[in-house]
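Researcher: Sit down with what I've pasted below and flag anything odd:
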Amino acid sequence: MADRPPAYTPIAAHLPAVYQEDAASYAEVSGYLGLVDELLREAVFALDDALLWLSPEFRALHPPGLSPDAEVDAVYARYRALADELAAWFGTRFPGSWERRDDPDAELDRKRAFLRRAARLWRRRGTPRGFYAWLVFAFELWDPQERPIMIEHFRYRDTDSGASAGDEDRFAHRVSLLVRIGDRFPDLRRRRELATWIEREAPAHLLVRVCWLAPADPRFGDFDPADAEGVRDLLRTVASYTPLEDGIHLETPPPSGRAQDSLGHGTLPGPARHTGTEDR
């Protein structure tokens, strides 16, 4: 509990004045009610702490219910659980990569940074721009050179195609997200984390296609959102798949029992297994 000057009025002081006419009787009543005062005083102080405990600044308090000499790991576990619960109030789950058991202070600081922005992010939730802002924050894509390119297809309709306003527009709610394969998403695990995050956080009315491009792909540097025809050409040339050399690697078990690269694209981790077809 945080130290503060007494701000609690004993229950006996709220009794009518008639109870105070006899000093001995009043002292006896005060003594009985004093037992309740002790419990109620702690509850009142706990409610005062709740405003701080249930806020991004929760680390200013020792977790309620834990003794002052509690293990450090137990304290961090309570802090971590509270941050996760507060995020859940906004319908949010932190990405798995935020977990830092080796540096819990860094993990909590990052989660607190989200909680301080949660109301603003929530106001924009359900919009493409709000989704993009949360994406940049969640994966720390602060460098403009690392940020994905988000293309909302409806902005680049071909108005000269002869389609009428009543025709079905299959791409009205489609979005292409062009993501660099680089330091932020170097392996399949990180790319899967992004794809899973997008499935959970993308606005319900949007169909988001993730396209992975090499870091040095010239299409990133040449992208101009004002060039409608150039954007249409870009959408025609990107595909929503990961090249073999950047995706899942294949393995063929050789006679030696050791993993062998038979396709020139590496091997899966772990020992090779005999299949009984080595001599065929």
